[in-house]
Amino acid sequence: MTNFFKGINYQKKIKRIFDIINSLFLLILFSPISLITALAIIIDSDGPILADVPERIGEKGKKFKMYKFRSMITNAHFLLRKDQRFKKLFNEYKKSSYKLKNDPRITKVGKFIRKHSFDEIPQLINVLKGEMSIVGPRAYYPDELENQLAEYPKTKKLVNKVLSVKPGVTGLWQVSGRSEVNFDKRIAIDADYVNNISLWKDLQIIFKTPFIMVSGKGAI
Fold first, then answer.
1. What is the pTM of this model?
2. Where would I find the Bacterial sugar transferase domain in this sequence (predicted)?
3. Are 134 and 49 a contacting pair, CB within 8 Å?
4. Whole-angstrom distance, CA of residue 148 vs CA of residue 44
């Protein structure tokens, strides 16, 4: 019976049911926070409630639209990559493993919701759609993954391992340092999760996640 909840049996037979039940429960639980967050975004800055970002890479390399509350100025993703005013910032972004500690694109409300991961709540819709899981590896932008692979070519096998499963709303790397962890270490952490996937591992990560959300540890 114990083996049934480990590895491929859990991943294919139980994890999807687990995801649907938990995402529905969490959407209801976080509905007041979601409403307040949406209103705060509307009041704080011009633009849509949800982030206007490109697709990310999911299971088996399939691209999908990840839902997140907007925490930045409108068109922030495009501006960073194409606007000459952000050229220096973009170079810093790439050098720091695609994370910025002082990002001028982040709004006042955005800074708060990113710190406490409230911007991630809409991803529960992705879980219901079957594009994501409650627990899983981080989902990357295509250009980010391409450039990180060029910088860390030895991680290719680890990346392939990570892309063999659905990305998660939370995951092992998120509760092990979040943005303080560079790509090579981050991908190794997520690959380790995939190699040892189990119900018990998922429950451990889920139980740790609220503390990370409240403390804002490692957030940018």
1. 0.85
2. 15-214
3. no
4. 34
Query: Which string of DSSP letters, residue by residue, matches the chain?
Result: -TGGGBHHHIIIIIHHHHHHHHHHHHHHHTHHHHHHHHHHHHHHSSS-SB-----EE-GGG-EE----B--BSTTHHHHHHH-GGGHHHHHHHHHTTS--SS-TTB-HHHHHHHHTTGGGTTHHHHHHHTS-EEE-PPPBPHHHHHHHHHH-GGGHHHHHHHTTS--EEE-TTGGGTGGGS-HHHHHHHHHHHHHT-BHHHHHHHHHHHHHHHHH-TT--
How many residues appear in the chain?
220
Span 94-125, pLDDT tens digits? 776 677 777 888 899 999 999 888 999 999 99
For 156, counting Cβ atoms within 10 Å of its Cβ (0-12 exposed, 13-18 middle, 19+ buried), the class is exposed
